[in-house]
Amino acid sequence: MSNYHSTMRNAIPETTEWEDLQVKHGNWEAREKPEPPPEWAPREERSAKEKVEACDEAGDLSDLEDDFDDDRFMAQYREARLKELRMKEEAAARVKILPQGHGEPVFIKRDEFIKHVTEAEHGTWVVVFLFQNGHEGCELM
């Protein structure tokens, strides 16, 4: 009979209604609630001076020096990358160049629909987003 099914007790402290009824009628023993895990707290960072004072061997000191070199390098790299991104952003703001055949969203009214969509230049793709003011679904877009 036990070949075709298995039972598994939940490791989570939550119980089911079935289990609660079984405990109430004395068929099962109540589960012991496990202790909650300790609250997580970030480890306190030690200052560079404390790290140096805590080093016992010369190897530990060289590891710390490597960390400081890495920190300096990362700070320089971060500054260079931010400068590069700012320059790209400024260049993009000054000149707006779109690839051939691409455009930008244009708001058209009902009268202009045929001109801009139906009679569009051959080979030009037109994407139409139809909406109605005040419609809840359109407001989400």
Summarize model confidence as the mean pLDDT. Answer: 77
As a percent range, the share of strand residues is under 5%
Termini separation comes to: 58 Å
Query: Would you identify the regions where 5 or more consecutive residues have pLDDT less than 50?
Result: none
- The radius of gyration computed from the alpha-carbon positions, rounded to a whole number of angstroms, is 34 Å
Judged by helices, strands and strand pairing, the structural class is mainly alpha
Shape type: flat
By DSSP (H or I, 4+ residues per run), the number of helices equals: 5
**What does the main sheet amount to?**
none
The overall strand count is: 0
Organism: Chloropicon laureae
Family: Belongs to the phosducin family.
Region (Disordered): 1-63
GO cellular component, one term: cytoplasm
If you had to describe this structure to a student in words, what would you say it looks like?
With 141 residues, the chain is mainly alpha-helical. 45% of the residues lie in helices and 0% in strands. It has helices at residues 17-24, 48-54, 58-94, 113-118, 136-140. It starts with 16 loop residues before the first helix and ends with a helix.
Provide keyphrases for this structure.
single chain, 141 residues, mainly alpha, 5 helices, 45% helix, Phosducin-like protein, Thioredoxin-like_sf
